Amino acid sequence: AQSVTQPDIHITVSEGASLELRCNYSYGATPYLFWYVQSPGQGLQLLLKYFSGDTLVQGIKGFEAEFKRSQSSFNLRKPSVHWSDAAEYFCAVGLVDSNYQLIWGAGTKLIIKP
Amino acid sequence: KAGVTQTPRYLIKTRGQQVTLSCSPISGHRSVSWYQQTPGQGLQFLFEYFSETQRNKGNFPGRFSGRQFSNSRSEMNVSTLELGDSALYLCASSWGLAGITDTQYFGPGTRLTVL
Prior knowledge:
The structure holds 2 protein chains of 2 kinds. Chain A contains no helices and 12 strands. Chain A is an all-beta fold. In chain A, the strands form 3 sheets. In chain A, strands 2, 5, 6, 10, 11 and 12 form a 6-stranded mixed β-sheet that branches. In chain A, strands 3-9-8-7 form a 4-stranded antiparallel β-sheet, with no helix packed on it. Chain B is mostly beta strands. Chain B has strands at 5-7, 10-13, 19-24, 31-38, 42-50, 53-57, 64-68, 74-78, 87-94, 105-106, 110-114. In chain B, the strands form 2 sheets. In chain B, strands 2, 4, 5, 6, 9, 10 and 11 form a 7-stranded mixed β-sheet that branches. Classes of the chains: A mainly beta, B mainly beta. The A-B interface holds A 32, 42-46, 49, 51, 90, 93-96, 98-107 and B 4, 33, 35, 42-45, 48, 55-56, 90, 92, 97-100, 102-104, 106-109.
Protein backbone atom coordinates (compact mmCIF):
# COMPACT_ATOMS: atom_id res chain seq x y z
CA ALA A 1 0.00 0.00 0.00
CA GLN A 2 1.08 3.55 -0.60
CA SER A 3 2.60 5.28 2.40
CA VAL A 4 4.57 8.31 3.46
CA THR A 5 7.15 8.03 6.22
CA GLN A 6 8.63 10.83 8.22
CA PRO A 7 11.01 8.90 10.44
CA ASP A 8 11.69 11.69 12.91
CA ILE A 9 8.84 12.57 15.26
CA HIS A 10 10.84 15.37 16.86
CA ILE A 11 13.99 17.18 15.79
CA THR A 12 15.86 19.72 17.91
CA VAL A 13 18.13 22.18 16.16
CA SER A 14 20.03 25.18 17.43
CA GLU A 15 19.09 28.54 16.00
CA GLY A 16 21.33 29.30 13.04
CA ALA A 17 22.11 25.66 12.38
CA SER A 18 21.16 23.80 9.24
CA LEU A 19 18.10 21.57 9.05
CA GLU A 20 17.10 18.50 7.13
CA LEU A 21 13.73 16.80 7.58
CA ARG A 22 13.32 13.41 6.00
CA CYS A 23 10.43 12.11 3.96
CA ASN A 24 10.23 8.75 2.20
CA TYR A 25 7.34 7.40 0.23
CA SER A 26 6.25 4.04 -1.00
CA TYR A 27 4.56 4.24 -4.37
CA GLY A 28 5.04 2.58 -7.74
CA ALA A 29 5.05 5.73 -9.81
CA THR A 30 6.50 9.18 -9.29
CA PRO A 31 4.01 11.04 -7.15
CA TYR A 32 3.42 14.71 -6.76
CA LEU A 33 5.23 15.80 -3.60
CA PHE A 34 4.47 18.49 -1.06
CA TRP A 35 5.79 19.92 2.18
CA TYR A 36 3.47 21.79 4.51
CA VAL A 37 4.12 23.58 7.79
CA GLN A 38 1.74 23.97 10.71
CA SER A 39 2.60 26.61 13.26
CA PRO A 40 1.08 26.31 16.74
CA GLY A 41 -2.61 27.14 16.65
CA GLN A 42 -2.62 27.76 12.93
CA GLY A 43 -3.66 25.94 9.81
CA LEU A 44 -1.28 24.29 7.39
CA GLN A 45 0.66 26.32 4.86
CA LEU A 46 2.30 25.01 1.71
CA LEU A 47 6.09 25.40 1.75
CA LEU A 48 6.91 23.88 -1.62
CA LYS A 49 5.89 21.24 -4.12
CA TYR A 50 7.41 19.02 -6.78
CA PHE A 51 5.54 17.92 -9.84
CA SER A 52 8.28 17.39 -12.43
CA GLY A 53 11.46 18.93 -13.80
CA ASP A 54 14.32 20.17 -11.66
CA THR A 55 14.59 17.87 -8.66
CA LEU A 56 15.74 20.67 -6.37
CA VAL A 57 12.74 22.78 -5.46
CA GLN A 58 12.79 26.17 -3.80
CA GLY A 59 10.01 27.16 -1.47
CA ILE A 60 8.95 29.94 0.80
CA LYS A 61 10.72 31.02 3.99
CA GLY A 62 14.10 29.89 2.66
CA PHE A 63 13.23 26.19 2.47
CA GLU A 64 14.22 23.84 -0.31
CA ALA A 65 13.64 20.16 -0.98
CA GLU A 66 15.29 17.61 -3.19
CA PHE A 67 13.50 14.77 -4.91
CA LYS A 68 15.60 11.62 -5.22
CA ARG A 69 13.81 9.01 -7.29
CA SER A 70 16.31 6.26 -6.49
CA GLN A 71 15.74 6.71 -2.77
CA SER A 72 12.01 7.54 -2.97
CA SER A 73 12.77 10.56 -0.85
CA PHE A 74 11.82 14.21 -0.75
CA ASN A 75 13.84 15.74 2.09
CA LEU A 76 13.30 19.28 3.25
CA ARG A 77 16.28 21.50 4.01
CA LYS A 78 17.08 24.94 5.31
CA PRO A 79 20.63 26.27 5.65
CA SER A 80 20.01 28.32 8.78
CA VAL A 81 16.94 28.00 10.98
CA HIS A 82 15.28 30.81 12.87
CA TRP A 83 13.29 30.54 16.08
CA SER A 84 10.15 31.28 14.06
CA ASP A 85 10.66 28.00 12.17
CA ALA A 86 9.55 26.05 15.23
CA ALA A 87 6.48 24.21 13.98
CA GLU A 88 5.30 20.85 12.74
CA TYR A 89 6.21 19.87 9.21
CA PHE A 90 4.21 17.48 7.06
CA CYS A 91 5.22 15.71 3.90
CA ALA A 92 2.45 14.66 1.53
CA VAL A 93 2.26 12.84 -1.77
CA GLY A 94 -0.40 13.03 -4.46
CA LEU A 95 -1.10 9.64 -6.03
CA VAL A 96 -1.17 10.17 -9.78
CA ASP A 97 -3.12 7.01 -10.51
CA SER A 98 -5.57 7.28 -7.62
CA ASN A 99 -7.35 10.47 -8.57
CA TYR A 100 -4.42 12.40 -7.10
CA GLN A 101 -5.46 11.51 -3.57
CA LEU A 102 -3.14 13.03 -0.99
CA ILE A 103 -1.39 10.75 1.48
CA TRP A 104 0.21 12.44 4.48
CA GLY A 105 3.18 11.67 6.67
CA ALA A 106 2.83 11.72 10.46
CA GLY A 107 4.69 14.98 10.77
CA THR A 108 7.96 16.09 12.33
CA LYS A 109 7.94 18.58 15.16
CA LEU A 110 10.84 21.00 14.91
CA ILE A 111 12.17 22.45 18.16
CA ILE A 112 14.61 25.34 18.02
CA LYS A 113 17.21 25.74 20.77
CA PRO A 114 18.23 29.33 21.46
CA LYS B 1 -9.34 37.56 -1.05
CA ALA B 2 -10.86 35.97 2.03
CA GLY B 3 -9.31 32.74 3.26
CA VAL B 4 -10.94 29.43 4.05
CA THR B 5 -13.42 29.81 6.87
CA GLN B 6 -14.71 27.07 9.11
CA THR B 7 -17.61 27.21 11.49
CA PRO B 8 -17.92 26.69 14.31
CA ARG B 9 -14.38 26.97 15.63
CA TYR B 10 -15.10 25.00 18.77
CA LEU B 11 -17.74 22.44 19.52
CA ILE B 12 -18.56 20.24 22.49
CA LYS B 13 -20.87 17.28 22.02
CA THR B 14 -21.74 14.13 23.91
CA ARG B 15 -21.45 10.55 22.76
CA GLY B 16 -24.24 9.45 20.47
CA GLN B 17 -25.01 12.93 19.17
CA GLN B 18 -24.38 14.05 15.65
CA VAL B 19 -22.55 17.13 14.44
CA THR B 20 -22.29 19.17 11.26
CA LEU B 21 -19.25 21.23 10.43
CA SER B 22 -19.15 23.87 7.73
CA CYS B 23 -16.42 25.06 5.41
CA SER B 24 -16.45 28.01 3.05
CA PRO B 25 -13.64 27.79 0.50
CA ILE B 26 -11.75 30.60 -1.10
CA SER B 27 -13.81 32.22 -3.82
CA GLY B 28 -13.29 30.43 -7.13
CA HIS B 29 -11.98 27.23 -5.59
CA ARG B 30 -13.83 24.12 -6.65
CA SER B 31 -12.23 21.51 -4.41
CA VAL B 32 -12.77 21.08 -0.70
CA SER B 33 -10.95 18.46 1.32
CA TRP B 34 -11.55 17.45 4.90
CA TYR B 35 -8.99 16.11 7.34
CA GLN B 36 -9.05 14.84 10.89
CA GLN B 37 -6.03 15.70 13.01
CA THR B 38 -5.33 14.02 16.35
CA PRO B 39 -2.16 13.76 18.43
CA GLY B 40 -2.12 9.98 18.07
CA GLN B 41 -3.06 9.50 14.41
CA GLY B 42 -1.77 12.72 12.94
CA LEU B 43 -3.40 14.14 9.84
CA GLN B 44 -5.84 11.78 8.20
CA PHE B 45 -7.69 12.41 4.99
CA LEU B 46 -11.46 12.13 5.21
CA PHE B 47 -12.75 13.03 1.76
CA GLU B 48 -12.47 15.46 -1.09
CA TYR B 49 -15.27 17.09 -3.03
CA PHE B 50 -14.81 18.64 -6.41
CA SER B 51 -17.66 20.38 -8.21
CA GLU B 52 -20.22 18.79 -5.86
CA THR B 53 -18.90 15.25 -6.42
CA GLN B 54 -16.93 13.19 -3.95
CA ARG B 55 -13.68 12.45 -5.76
CA ASN B 56 -11.67 10.77 -3.05
CA LYS B 57 -12.46 9.14 0.25
CA GLY B 58 -10.24 8.13 3.11
CA ASN B 59 -10.56 5.15 5.36
CA PHE B 60 -13.23 6.31 7.77
CA PRO B 61 -16.48 4.63 8.77
CA GLY B 62 -19.77 5.56 7.19
CA ARG B 63 -20.63 7.73 10.20
CA PHE B 64 -18.50 10.36 8.52
CA SER B 65 -20.15 11.94 5.52
CA GLY B 66 -19.98 15.13 3.59
CA ARG B 67 -21.41 17.11 0.77
CA GLN B 68 -20.62 20.09 -1.36
CA PHE B 69 -23.03 22.69 -2.59
CA SER B 70 -23.15 24.47 -5.91
CA ASN B 71 -21.32 27.47 -4.43
CA SER B 72 -18.51 25.08 -3.37
CA ARG B 73 -19.28 25.42 0.31
CA SER B 74 -19.01 22.09 2.05
CA GLU B 75 -20.34 20.42 5.13
CA MET B 76 -19.23 17.33 6.89
CA ASN B 77 -21.41 15.35 9.24
CA VAL B 78 -20.50 12.88 11.91
CA SER B 79 -23.31 10.78 13.30
CA THR B 80 -23.39 8.76 16.50
CA LEU B 81 -20.35 10.50 17.94
CA GLU B 82 -17.73 8.47 19.78
CA LEU B 83 -15.09 9.67 22.22
CA GLY B 84 -12.43 8.93 19.60
CA ASP B 85 -13.96 11.47 17.25
CA SER B 86 -12.53 14.26 19.39
CA ALA B 87 -10.12 15.99 17.05
CA LEU B 88 -9.29 19.07 15.06
CA TYR B 89 -11.16 18.92 11.76
CA LEU B 90 -9.44 20.82 9.01
CA CYS B 91 -10.90 21.93 5.74
CA ALA B 92 -8.79 22.88 2.76
CA SER B 93 -9.71 24.36 -0.58
CA SER B 94 -7.99 24.44 -3.92
CA TRP B 95 -8.79 25.39 -7.47
CA GLY B 96 -8.25 21.88 -8.78
CA LEU B 97 -7.91 18.48 -7.16
CA ALA B 98 -5.75 18.76 -4.06
CA GLY B 99 -3.16 16.25 -5.17
CA ILE B 100 -2.33 18.02 -8.41
CA THR B 101 -3.17 21.62 -7.79
CA ASP B 102 -0.68 24.36 -7.18
CA THR B 103 -1.71 25.17 -3.65
CA GLN B 104 -4.18 23.84 -1.13
CA TYR B 105 -5.29 26.46 1.41
CA PHE B 106 -6.26 25.35 4.89
CA GLY B 107 -8.76 26.81 7.27
CA PRO B 108 -8.09 27.21 11.00
CA GLY B 109 -10.06 24.10 11.84
CA THR B 110 -12.96 23.15 14.07
CA ARG B 111 -12.00 21.70 17.43
CA LEU B 112 -14.54 19.00 18.29
CA THR B 113 -14.63 17.59 21.79
CA VAL B 114 -16.83 14.57 22.49
CA LEU B 115 -17.69 13.96 26.15
